[in-house]
Design brief:
193 residues, alpha+beta, 46% helix, two-stranded antiparallel ribbon, elongated
Length: 193
């Protein structure tokens, strides 16, 4: 086997590859047909969006690495409690505002609970919303007409659909990668048969 072509990332190499996975997982979230499918896709979206930081810094030039994260490549990876990735998140907050939510969710799903919860008013969940038929004239009974899945993020008591958060995050990442010259345009490929 040619070791130069080997990866531990199933052949994904560039930020664009992980960005495309984010889009794929958003599609999974949007088309989920069960609560489990919805939760798993949302989990993956958060992880994809947060780890795009690592993938971006990996390919950035030394000057861009420092400009984007506030850290020198090859230097210490922490300043106090601040990691390189958290430095990136903080410095790029204007360009990637949804990243702070993805950071918290991704670390929560990875570790189950985080030691330093900097967003204690952020929660996530999923539920099914039932739509009922009109009562039948003879029996007065109603039946479930439709079931809709809702996977959500709650911030300061306000509920938002998770798919909207991740779509916003994908749009922000696309703009960011374009502006940084890191987005690799790829013509749409035909589906594998």
């Amino acid at each position: 086997m040619d070791q130069r072509a080997s990866t531990k990332t199933f052949g994904m190499r560039e930020p664009t590859d992980l960005y495309e996975k984010l889009l794929h997982d958003i599609g999974r979230l949007r088309s989920a047909r069960s609560s489990a499918e919805s939760r798993y896709a949302a989990f993956d979206c958060a992880v994809d969006a947060w780890h795009l930081v690592d993938w971006t810094l990996h390919v950035a030039s030394d000057a861009a690495y420092e400009r984007l994260s506030g850290f020198k490549r090859g230097g210490p990876s922490k300043k106090g409690k601040l990691t390189v990735e958290a430095g990136f998140k903080d410095l790029q907050e204007d360009r990637l505002p949804a990243l702070r939510f993805c950071h918290m969710i991704a670390n929560s799903v990875k570790h189950r609970e985080v030691r330093n919860d900097f967003m204690p008013n952020l929660w996530s969940g999923s539920t099914a919303i039932l739509s009922w038929s009109e009562p039948e004239k003879e029996t007065g009974e109603c039946s479930v007409k439709e079931v809709s899945l809702l996977t959500y993020v709650t911030v300061d008591g306000e509920r938002y659909e998770a798919v909207e958060l991740f779509e916003d995050m994908a749009d922000q990442w696309r703009t960011f990668l374009d502006e940084e010259g890191l987005f690799e345009f790829r013509p749409e490929q035909p589906e594998d048969e």
